[in-house]
Amino acid sequence: MTENEQSAPTQTQSANSNANSFGNSHDWVRVLAHYRETNQLRSSFELAVSVVPFVLLWALAWWSLSVSYWLTFAISVFNAAFLLRLFAIQHDCGHGAFFRNRNVSDWTGRVLGVLTLTPFDVWRRTHSAHHSASGNLELRGMGDIHTLTVSEYRNLSRFGRLMYRVYRHPVTLFGLGPAYLFLLQHRLPIGLMGSGKYWTSAMATNAAIVAAIGVIWYFGGLAPLLLIFLPSSIVAATAGIWLFYVQHQFETTHWEEAKDWQLHDAALHGSSYYVLPKVLQWFSANIGIHHVHHLYSRIPFYRLTEVLRDHAELADFNRMTIRESLANARLHLWDEQSKRLLSFAQARPLVLAPVRN
User: Fold this and answer.
1) How far apart are the two ends of the chain, measured CA to CA in Å?
2) Given the DSSP bridges, would you call strands 319-320 and 333-335 parallel, antiparallel or unpaired?
3) Going by fewer Cβ within 10 Å, which terminus of the chain is more open, N or C?
């Protein structure tokens, strides 16, 4: 170990130091309540500057089919950025944070759900479960990325460990997973199969998607589906899953047993501030300011930057750069002893260690 490595604090030590000096999460909830008011004109503007370019790029991509399939594909991949932004607006609608009128927010979200291949009412319910149980080890399983503790992984059979490794592999999480989730799993109200309300949401969205695909097929055949619809949908889905992953999967994230779990502490300490270049921050609708969003989900996305501007200490908490997020993608197991997320290699000595009675 070098002298610099000896003197430099670890990520865990730095995070613990920040947490100790940060203040009570309940106090921050009261502060953030002042930012919950929406601006109707601003919300309408943000919706317009997302929908209009998305539609125009779709039209441009369709026109380009007669010029070059590669050009069509490139336009469609770029248009995924606007589709991602529309999903982020749908996300705000689900929290009732986009328009003051809840019905307007809900129907905006339902219409956008056809474009994002996401039944709005089903997604809103599962995402609410994510917010209400994030970081609670006993309430995992709905609206989150499956994460095992070291002890749980140790108790699995060899086949079980293999299946978990396959699930957590980047090819699965960020390759096969997004396509499966948005093209297939979202077609049914998974986890809510016993409710007619959520079946209605899923089937109505499916019907609208099928109708749209039918119109595209009728007027353009297979080419626009393969070169416009699928590329933009899959790239946007992949980017969305990546953002969701890095916002909660980092070394010093927060997991606790139910008896020790506290909602606001988990929201603040278990969510990252993903620092992105301005253009990516715009396309992702500030969702990288995730610790603030989890503390107070009713804040419209366009006001999250106001929070950081007015409260600089929040901008220094749980910061994660793009480079750090790439490194965090190798972390897969929660160690309940050290309170940090470990890679399989880091956890190996713990997995192989004899179990103490």
Assistant:
1) 35
2) unpaired
3) C
d(C-alpha 287, C-alpha 302), whole Å: 10
Calculate what percentage of the chain has a pLDDT beyond 70: 93
DSSP code string of 291-350? HHHHH-TTS-GGGHHHHHHH-HHHHTSSEE-HHHHHHHTT--EEETTTTEEE-HHHHHHH
Q: Which residues contact 303 (CB under 8 A, 6 or more apart)?
A: 35
Q: Can you give the pLDDT at residue 22? A: 57
Please give the pLDDT value at position 14.
43
How distant, in Å, are the alpha carbons of 38, 176, 206, 209, 240 from that of 119?
A: 24, 20, 8, 10, 16
List, for residues 191-247, the tens digit of each pLDDT value: 899 999 999 999 999 999 999 999 999 999 999 999 999 999 999 999 999 999 999
Asked if the model's pLDDT at residue 37 lies above 60, the reply is yes
Q: What are the structure tokens assigned to 338, written together?
A: 């050290």
Q: Report the C-alpha gap between 203 and 191 in whole angstroms.
A: 15
d(CA 17, CA 37): 33
Rounded distance, CA 258 to CA 243, Å? 26
Amino acid at 167: Y
Integer Cα distance of 338 and 151 in angstroms: 13
Question: Which residue from 34, 121, 13, 39 is spatially nearest to 295, judged by alpha carbons?
Answer: 34
Q: How far apart are CA 296 and CA 289, in angstroms?
A: 11
